[in-house]
Amino acid sequence: MLNWDATVVNMILKGIAETLYMTCVSTIFGYVLGLPLGVLCAVSDKEGIRPNQPLYRVLDIVINIVRSIPFLILLIVLIPFTRFVVGKSYGSTGTIVPLVISAAPFIARMVESSIKEVDHGVVEAAQSMGASNWTIIRKVLLPESRVSLITGVTIVFGTVLGYSAMAGTVGGGGLGDIAIRYGYYRYQADIMIVTVILLVALTQIFQFAGMKLASKLDRRRA
Amino acid sequence: MSDIIEVKNLVKTFTTKDATIEALKGIDLNIEEGDVFGIIGMSGAGKSTLVRCLNFLEKPTSGTVMVEGRELESLKDAELRKLRGSIGMIFQGFNLLMQSNVITNIMFPLEIAGADKDKALERARTLLKTVDLAEKEKAYPAQLSGGQKQRVAIARALATEPRILLCDEATSALDPQTTASILELLRKINKEMGVTIVVITHQMSVVREICNNVAIIEDGALVETGRVAEIFAHPKSKAAKRLIIEGKDPDEWEAQNKAIAGNGSMELPAELHEDRKIRIVFQTNSSYEPVIANMILRFGKPVNILRADTKNVGGTAKGEMILGLPKEKDTQEEMIKYLKERDLAVEEVTGNVELGCNSS
User: Fold this and answer.
1) CB pair distance less than 8 Å for A147 and B99
2) Where in the sequence is the domain holding A191, given as residue range(s)?
3) Does A131 contact B112 at a Cβ distance shorter than 8 Å?
């Protein structure tokens, strides 16, 4: 059995930091790509404010293709691309690239569905006031769907956290990496259990905080 | 006064995978500036499509729509958006921003128009006072009642000082009392601000309450149009007769067409389906002379009063009465003549609405 000395504690603390770093940065960049993509989908669909079937079809197919590729495969396939973007294909920073690519289409779908929940009547009202599509996106679609969008962020965060742990198998760093290296390869179950508990705790904390924020911002209840 | 809205030969067809639906089949309509104009018809008759063509939320398939002398078809997108700013619109479902408070909702059209924020706030506050909701500035729509939400929507629609207000079934989701207060507010807006109001409804009571003119549409076609008081006294089309003589709102036409048996209160009394019946309409202030009593005395024959009612038509009370006449043909004719001589609008009533009636 391994002693719980300062090295181990430090290693685990570093793991937490790496996991948070990968998850947060990937979620943010995921939204940088996924949010506009999701808005574009919602807007160009046939019920959207500017229907464009060919565009929607293309986006729809691309999103489905990327979403269907298992994350581990994506991780490996993207190695040259990752190396090109961040200079290396391993470690926390190297994991961010495939995480972003994998999360973006998922985020786009979440955003699309959140925006489609907005009552068409409100959009029509804005149109009757002479609002441009851009104004409708900024002032109606996004603010009116904010509760659903924030709930979406919470779900995305949990998913990306899970993926980041998976990236540990290929030297991705973070808690997943520790769990694999110590728990699986070295049969040190206690470290594995601790890291898994920490992953569960992180997911729970973010889930709780996200839901709390969403309901705090919801004005639809009397 | 000049026409603020002119619609010529308006056609709108919707094409789905399986069929082409003609929602509007060549509508001609003129709405005068300062008018309160009603468009009534049953759901699916095309009235919502028609009102959406007035601000081009729906683009007509063919025909022209002129608003304040400008043909909408010819406008570029930006110009059209600007014009929409001068046409307010309110809806059955209120369509407020649920995540924004009352004052932000009212300021929204001003924000779209690029107005100065302080001025917008000031304007929004003035409007809140107009709609009697000054104390609800910071409330969210979910905290308001239906009537209050519609008041906020009205304030919002008026924010950019539009010359026209389109009301799409604006009172259909409200109870009768709230409806009355909203109609009162609309009347005030029309009178005090001179805003031309177009009211889309399936409720005859709404048209009677506030409209000066009305267009009745059925199956995408305009079947009758004119002054409400005139149509109330002399309904010509089948649809108008159903609306006025039988007091049926368009919702009930379907049921009536299918002649569902035992359909209680709204059905005419059984005897109305037999004898010769007439309907007379009179101004209540002309009803001091006991016309019916005098007529009975003169002819020495009884008449059967089948229905008597007073209705508010465009702000004036109108009496209406349905009489069952004696069997003798001569007496019938003379009685009708007698009533007409006293300036009463006389209308034949037939139990079967399919039959044509003479409009005298």
Assistant:
1) yes
2) 6-221
3) yes
